[in-house]
Fold:
Amino acid sequence: MLEFKKLTLDTIPEIAPYLELHPQRLCDWTIGGTYIWRDAFEYEYAFGAGNLIFRLRIFDDECSFTVPLGGDREEGMRLIQEYCDSCEGDGELQYCIVGESDLEILESFYAEMDVCEERDYFDYLYEVEDILGLKGRIHRSTRNNINRFNRLYPYSSFKLIDEAMLPEIHQFLDRYVEEDTEATAAALDEAEKIHEVLDNMELYRAFGAALYAEDDLMVGFSLGEYDGDTLYVHVEKANTDYRGAYQVLMTSFIREFAKEGIAYVNREDDAGDPGLRKSKLSYNPIWLVKKYTVRNLLPK
Structure:
């Protein structure tokens, strides 16, 4: 029987090798994408048949599982089915954060299932070359915002985060949250976890940089991580009073960290926010990385 445990910060060394095995460019299967949201979605984990299996709560507090990863995946699904059939299960079995290649795994084990696209949680994937070039009409607005920022703040700078900068970044994040009068519980939890990342950069395998309009005036910062040929941007916070700050921050971050071998940038999902969706679409994604929820499963 599967035994689930709460996902805590100190489990990163144990969990990370499994995350590296995921064959898709989903932000949810990175260290940052998993651990920053572990409390918001009440992540638990178990090992079975050589697999890592997450149990979490999404969509109106429903309990869901991830497709087993790392070992005998069919046996892993059998163990999940056994768990849900027992008194320890919580409601009907459903799978979440299912990628397109995961559907094939589920189809090999289940005779029937209902598949639902979760558009609000599709990841936005961009080509590094396109973002750095910003060519064509589709990028005109981005170019204009960058040029405006550079004209207004000719002494701006972009600095890699080091230990000496951390207190300043913590303060910037606190002010950012305080000024957001509509901050949700999820946003507050995210901010708490960003503080955690800043205090544990090595453990999170994270790196970052900050944008300054002037020598001592920070107007934004970003944090990210690598996985394969993709740069994942987990955190991007900027002061919108400085028009163009977000565009300069994004392009500067990619220019700095898209090292040789990095072809794509994953800027995560829009969570259904119309403004964020419009913004992320404006940067011309090459691909929306689809995610699904799978319910009403009937084993073969």
Remarks:
- The mean pLDDT is 95.
- The radius of gyration is 20 Å.
- Residues 185-199 form the longest helix (15 residues).
